[in-house]
Design brief:
Distance between the termini: 42 Å
Shape: elongated
Number of strands: 7
Low-confidence stretches: none
Radius of gyration: 22 Å
Helix content: 25-40%
Structural class: alpha/beta
Mean pLDDT: 91
Largest sheet: 4 strands, mixed
Strand order of the largest sheet: 1-5-6-7
Length: about 170
């Protein structure tokens, strides 16, 4: 008996979107302001400014940077602004917050600019596994953009997906 295996997924009009295809490239770094605070908790303006002036900012050339403070210190907003000032013209992008916040800030405008017209009235699978750490916010933004146009939306892989939306 000659049984040929047929790949029904490949023959379907199913569209797979992999957010890692749109993941912004470039080196990432985090800057923790606590390193310039006295005992990690107190900002002394004169010392803070001097530390920033003496710091080697060129190590962050073409990096995407997240600036935050890992302690419970009360850090005035101008302190973050001073750090950002030193990174201007060196870093590729600068964000306040965690690495996940930075990744969201980087990928959301890319998702918002996607032309998803090719998904109109088609079943769409949003790929779940990726080599890149895609922020959850990106998936939320993508389904928000797809729901008005797609016939159906699933999450995962074509062979084992979780249904999320189906047009009535």
């Amino acid at each position: 008996m000659n049984t040929q295996i047929i790949n029904r997924v490949a023959k379907s009009n199913l569209i797979t979107i992999d957010l890692s295809d749109y993941y912004p490239k470039g080196k990432r770094a985090v800057i923790d302001i606590k390193n310039w605070l006295k005992e990690g908790l107190v900002l002394i303006e004169k010392d803070f400014r001097q530390s920033l002036n003496n710091y080697n900012w060129n190590q962050f050339k073409e990096h995407h940077i997240a600036i935050f403070c890992s302690t419970d210190a009360i850090v005035p907003i101008w302190a973050y602004m001073l750090v950002q000032k030193h990174l201007n013209g060196i870093a590729k992008s600068i964000t306040y917050g965690s690495t996940e916040t930075m990744e969201s800030v980087l990928i959301i405008p890319i998702i918002e600019s996607l032309d998803l017209g090719y998904c109109k009235d088609k079943p769409v699978v949003i790929k779940g596994c990726s080599d890149e750490k895609i922020p959850r916010n990106a998936y939320i933004k993508l389904i928000e953009k797809l729901e008005p146009i797609a016939k159906s939306i699933m999450f995962g892989e074509a062979c084992s997906s979780v249904p999320l939306f189906k047009k009535k």
